[in-house]
């Protein structure tokens, strides 16, 4: 591997990143950190979560109209 190859890759990534719509922070917050939307409306909005580990096994952490809650997220 030549010493210039890493710099060439950084240059290509740097030139292509402005062509991607939106910012990297926006993408990270929306698709990585935010849980998926709830399939059904939650029965009660009193058990909030930030990660899946905050919920009991039978419940899933998802985003609903009242915030990010633990709910039974099955049809």
**Helix content class:** 25-40%
- The number of helical elements comes to 2
Q: Which outline best applies?
A: elongated
Strand order, main sheet: write it out: 1-2
Ranges where pLDDT stays below 50 over 5 or more residues in a row are: none
Number of E-state strands: 2
- Beta-strand content bin: 5-15%
Regarding CATH, which class of the domain at 35-75?
Few Secondary Structures
Could you tell me the radius of gyration in angstroms?
A: 19 Å
CATH architecture of the domain at 35-75: Irregular
What do these coordinates show?
- With 75 residues, this protein is an alpha+beta fold.
- Helices cover 29% and strands 13% of the residues.
- The protein has helices at residues 5-16, 24-33, and strands at 60-64, 67-71.
- Strands 1-2 form a two-stranded antiparallel sheet.
- The mean pLDDT is 77.
SSE inventory with pairings:
Layout: H1 5-16, H2 24-33, E1 60-64, E2 67-71
Antiparallel strand pairs: 1-2
Protein traits:
peptidase inhibitor activity; alpha+beta; 75 residues
Brief synopsis:
29% of the residues lie in helices and 13% in strands.
């Amino acid at each position: 591997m030549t010493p210039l190859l890493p710099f060439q890759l950084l240059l290509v990534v740097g030139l292509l990143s402005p062509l991607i719509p939106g910012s990297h922070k926006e993408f990270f917050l929306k698709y990585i950190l935010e849980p998926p939307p709830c399939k059904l409306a939650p029965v009660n909005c009193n058990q909030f979560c930030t990660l899946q580990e905050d919920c009991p096994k039978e419940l899933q952490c998802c985003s609903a109209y009242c915030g990010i809650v633990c709910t039974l997220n099955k049809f």
